[in-house]
Write a structure and sequence with these properties.
Length: about 300
């Protein structure tokens, strides 16, 4: 039995090295491992294996933060892209509208020899309107848009889309307005043939994909493929914008007039939005001719 006076009663075989010796051994071992790793890269494989083993744990720890960041960024990005798409769609529609007008002016300048009075009535202001509802009656080509009198919309205002003349406002409420499409059986658009300037009227047939030209005599110079532009007569639609393209021309000997059908260029059954336009519909007054020099002399000669 060990004596109580002995401060350390454990057997000598169970005693370990001192702390100083342990520190020296471990320090030497660490230095040796670092030197070997630095010179011969022995621990690269071990480090790669440890990194691969620790990756699932790192991913699991970072997953909630990554998910929160992705959700916030995705929401902000989608909202930003949606707003940007709305702006770009509006700008694209306006640019295509201007391009159509420029093309019409180019052809008109080729025909005109003098005077540009008719080309001065261009679109001055426009407003994008989204289509809310479409009339399901096949004989009533009407749509409802999300713009009304609070936006300055008025009865009789012209509506266009990215491809051409779309229709005309018939009823206006504070926050909405009804547009009658050019294909409605009650609609009519004064047009001219872009190729030769022949003027006529394009009427709706009640079908979204067809217009008729009922007032052309047999001698009229018109053929399939001719582009019909708005003439501006009547002051409802701005002049020079595409309306339709002639689809068929039939000459019936028993009829005094031609049977002409045309396909509207506007996407009457597909457009998600339209452009309501304001333009100066006033016709320029003719310039008065100066009086001849002999007129005052003749007036003075009279008693």
């Amino acid at each position: 039995m060990p004596s109580l006076r002995d401060p350390d009663a454990r057997p000598l075989l169970l005693r370990g090295p001192s702390l100083g010796l342990r520190f020296i051994v471990l320090a030497a071992l660490s230095v040796g491992i670092m030197v070997a790793d630095h010179r011969q890269q022995h621990l690269t494989t071990v480090r790669a294996a440890l990194t691969a083993a620790a990756y699932p744990l790192q991913w699991l720890v970072n997953a909630p933060f990554e998910a929160a960041g992705w959700l916030g960024e995705s929401t902000a990005t989608r909202a930003s892209l949606r707003a940007e798409n709305v702006v770009l769609a509006s700008e694209n529609l306006k640019l295509r509208l201007r391009m159509m007008r420029f093309e019409a002016l180019e052809h008109e300048n080729e025909r005109l020899r003098a005077g540009i009075g008719s080309t001065a009535r261009v679109v001055q202001r426009s407003l994008i309107a989204e289509i809310l509802r479409v009339d399901l009656d096949p004989y009533r080509q009407r749509v409802l848009v999300n713009r009304g009198s609070r936006d300055g919309i008025y009865v009789g205002q012209a509506a266009l889309d990215a491809n051409g003349v779309f229709g005309q406002v018939t009823r206006v409420g504070p926050w909405s307005a009804e547009i009658i499409l050019i294909a409605d059986s009650r609609a009519a658009v004064p047009v001219l043939v872009e190729r030769n300037g022949l003027r006529t009227v394009a009427s709706g047939s009640g079908q979204s994909g067809q217009l008729i030209l009922p007032y052309l005599p047999k001698s009229a110079d018109i053929k399939p493929g001719d582009l019909l532009l708005s003439s501006g007569l009547g002051g409802v639609f701005p002049p020079g914008y595409p309306v339709a393209r002639v689809a068929a021309v039939e000459r019936n000997p028993s009829q005094p007039l031609l049977s002409v059908t045309a396909a509207p260029l506007a996407a009457l059954d597909r457009a998600p939005e339209v452009l309501l336009v304001w333009f100066d519909s006033r016709v320029p007054e003719p310039v008065a001719e100066p009086a001849s020099p002999a007129a005052p002399a003749a007036a003075e000669a009279r008693p």
